[in-house]
Design brief:
By secondary structure, the chain is an alpha/beta fold. The protein contains seven helices and eleven strands. Helices cover 25% and strands 25% of the residues. The N terminus is likely disordered.
Amino acid sequence: MGAERARLPAGLWLVAAMAALAGCRVAAQPTGEPTDYKAMREAMVDRLVRARYVKNERVIEALREVRREAFVPPELRDQAYEDTPLPIGFGQTISAPSIVAMMTELLEPKPEDVMLEIGTGSGYQAAVLARLVKHVYTIEILPELARTAAARLKRLGFNNVSVRCGDGYKGWPEHAPFDGIIVTCAPTDIPQALVEQLKEGGRMVIPVGELWNQELYVLRKEKGRVVKRAVLPVIFVPMVPGREDQPAEDIQVPETPGGQQTGEPKGE
């Protein structure tokens, strides 16, 4: 079926597409001064609002609350509030704040919702959603990222997020149907399993297509049919299917005494 393209402010689609580009890296700029992450976060959100990436007040408040510097490597924390993707290891990136804001708002999250995320990465998108909904189930195919994200989310107090290491193409059927599904990597086609796990009336936000030829879509399930709306061109890392011999693993983070882990950002 055909897809209707959403109308965006002039030039916004190009900015957003470049912001989603994986592998961008800018050299860290040490200042020798204590970093005021809270002020940087406030300034970032103000820029996103002025640029019309986000209007929903609940989403804006979640972006003000979640500490993006806690989800990037230590050497890149001074860049945490620039509107750019940053590498998190294993060839993956944390999406630019503008993309996170836009995709979160497109989901139209409600406090009673249960959401599924495909592509946990560092856990930042899941953390933002966790401020907005009842529970977030998130799947990451790379074991190292899944375990690190699960531990980080628990340390930071996001107790309404469950992390699975597994194949995102299969979704998480045990907890379906979901009020919303957000996919932060790009399949060439919309996975049927995810469509089946979307609740009636639910929304899916997903990039689709080959690299350099991707489109961000919003899907809505209405009376068993899927209504698809094109939003803008984007560039995301490809969605990789799992191996048949790689069973899904729900990550359990043991309780550990001693509080904050070494290297975690402290204070604001």
